[in-house]
Amino acid sequence: MTAPPVQQKTKKPRQSSDLKPVINESGIEVKTLYTLEDVIRSGGIDQSPPGEPPFTRGIHSEMYRRRPWTMRQYTGFANAADTNKRFKYLIENGQTGLNVAFDLATQCGYDSDAPEALGEVGRVGMAVDTLRDFEIAFDGIDLDAITVSLTVNGTAAILIAMYLAMAEKRGYDLAKLRGTAQNDILKEFIGRGTWIFPVDSSVKLVADTIEYCAKIAPKYSPVSVCGYHIRESGATPAEEMGYAFCIAKAYTDAALARCLDIDEFAGRLSFNFNIFGNLFEQIAKFRAGRRHWAKIMIDQYKAKDPSSGWMRMIAGGGGFGLTIEQPENNIMRGAYYALVAALSGAQTMALCCYDEAYTIPTPKAQRISLRTMQLLIEEIGLCDTVDPLGGSYYVETLTNQMEDKIVEAMNWVDSVGGIVKAVSDGLIQSKVSEYAYERQKNTESGALRKVGVNCYVERNEEKPDLELHPYDEIGANEQIDSLRKIRAERDNDVVGRCLRALRDDAVAGRNVMPAMVQAVKAYATVGEITDALVGVYGRFVEPTRFS
Amino acid sequence: MSEQRIKVLVGKPGLDGHDVGAKVIVHALMEAGFEVIYTGLRQTPESIAIKAREANVDVVGVSILSGSHIPLCRRLREELQEKGLYDKLWIVGGNIPEEDRMVLRQLGFSGVFPTGSRTGDIVSFIRENLK
């Protein structure tokens, strides 16, 4: 971390006072020119090679030269059989990982025939009631060759249990099984909103999954901490990363309280970040974040295994950056966002599709996103060398400044009593929604430029209409029928016993995962398992005050 | 409506967790000088109507991005009518395709604001229609 000596005094660049100041979203003023002096003044250049802590330049020594990023588009709709078909289509087209979307009933812990699920079955993702749905969705897909990411939070423990049970039934060795679950409940309270239980019980469940996976499926990544949705909800890039680290630390602390060693699980924690906004600010955010997470793990948690300090990430999406106006512009935006992810050393990439601002992506739009990423690998030379922007005066200075801003965001959380309290009291929610409102006002006034929205607007331009996939009533009814059939055919005495055992474990404060795995194997439903836990933990009551 | 402060309820019915827009609207309405009550997520049409009646609001607004706006607004209309709130101003915002906007207006939601609407337009709509 020592700064290189100043070779020669560079001439001070003239700063013209008539230029409008540029301040990035994280609050850093951007100069018209950067020199070695700026780098040194901001803290110097981290000279450690990639693959060595603190990993500013990347978590692996050879990065994409060894293996390009995983491409994992978000998919899943209607029922398990349809989802299975779409998965196979994507795999045939060269996708290397699956990212599964679930419907809201599944995500919020309701069975498909619950009154709350009315109109929601299979609407925004795949409906899952029992293990049978997983058996169908992943039929014929080699779980060793394709890694599966489950985008679920409120009911993540249940779906992880189902995934492990399904894999075990198909003969996979759980000790070697890979895969990821989002399972980041704290961010759900800030954005996205699929919480179920109160905050402390929710964190307890995350710790249960970490502990269980560390023992039973040590290659499985039970948590992907998401700055992504916090950013979509209105946080700045620095806050996105700072809050995500506070959340990751909360899970880490909860897991350590189970007497796990830090190196038993830290290497399996991963992150999910957003890529829209100023290109250099995002790249600096990732380089700074990677370095800071390594410092947290090594300095604060005394991790010995280097992989414990890896900020492995999926960087992607950028939904907030896309517009319904002139939607083809989103193809270009997507390409630049992908470039950000590639220049930042992301392990996995997923792009929002150009039509996503007004509809569920068509297969064509999904293919364009996939090809965008493949183009970067095959044609543009993004995989040739590690951290190609390392050493840039601007990027290195910004990396140092972004790290300070990330620390600032984390200190703010500490100052209000820590992340669990900040989320329970709605403090972060209130802060990010204020910024979202500022952003909206600035977009409406034109202070924040948005091409096609407040500048370069075409007269008489026809906006595409918002399109919704028609609700598939027949498909929903089929799902309900098969759920009822399973309820009738399964051994209900065993289910009852399993659910009682689950409740007992929850009451006693034990890890609920072993009992949950037994329950899903007996074809207990998502709704039944959720209800059993709600009976013990209660439900979260959302703070709705605005300052 | 000139002297009294306009009172608005902003509700999020259903399981949809997209609340960025709803919260932006809350801020915009507050800044316009309205008194705003935000319900939070996972409300039912019934719970929204109950809250609207209890708070004696002038405007009932709901934000729905899941695509379930028609069935939800249909049920909300029943609840609002049953609770005697048919004379209040009803508005709805979210991912609402063109063809559904007329349906919602016919249901009694006179203000329909699809994704991308300007907050200023919503404020003016409320002011003009409560005259």
Poorly predicted parts of chain B: none
Number of DSSP helical runs of chain A: 21
Largest interface: A-B, 42 and 35 residues
Give the number of helices of chain B.
5
Quaternary organisation? heterodimer
The unreliable regions of chain A are: 5-9
Q: Sketch the major β-sheet of chain B.
A: 5 strands, parallel
Structural class by helix and strand composition of chain B: alpha/beta
Order of helices and strands of chain B: EHEHEHEHEH
> What is the name of the CATH superfamily of the domain at 65-445 in chain A?
Methylmalonyl-CoA mutase
CATH superfamily of chain B: Cobalamin-binding domain
Largest sheet of chain A: 5 strands, parallel
The strands making up the biggest β-sheet of chain A line up spatially as: 3-12-11-10-9
- Determine the CATH topology of the domain at 65-445 in chain A: TIM Barrel
Shape, per Cα inertia axes of chain A: globular
Q: How do the strands of the widest beta sheet of chain B line up side by side?
A: 2-1-3-4-5
Estimate nothing, just give the exact number of structural domains of chain B: 1
CATH topology-level name of chain B: Rossmann fold
Give the helix/strand layout.
The complex is a heterodimer of chains A (547) and B (131).
Chain A: E1 22-23, E2 29-30, H1 36-42, H2 63-66, E3 70-71, E4 74-75, H3 80-92, E5 97-100, H4 104-108, H5 131-137, E6 147-150, H6 156-169, E7 179-181, H7 185-190, H8 199-216, E8 220-221, E9 223-226, H9 228-232, H10 237-256, H11 262-265, E10 269-274, H12 279-300, E11 313-317, H13 329-343, E12 348-351, H14 363-378, H15 393-415, H16 419-424, H17 427-445, H18 473-489, H19 492-508, H20 513-521, H21 526-537
Parallel strand pairs in A: 3-12, 4-5, 5-6, 6-7, 7-8, 9-10, 10-11, 11-12
Antiparallel strand pairs in A: 1-2
Helix pairs in contact in A: 1-15, 3-5, 6-20, 8-10, 10-12, 10-15, 12-13, 12-15, 13-14, 19-20, 19-21
Chain B: E1 7-11, H1 20-31, E2 35-38, H2 45-55, E3 59-64, H3 69-82, E4 89-94, H4 98-107, E5 111-114, H5 119-129
Parallel strand pairs in B: 1-2, 1-3, 3-4, 4-5
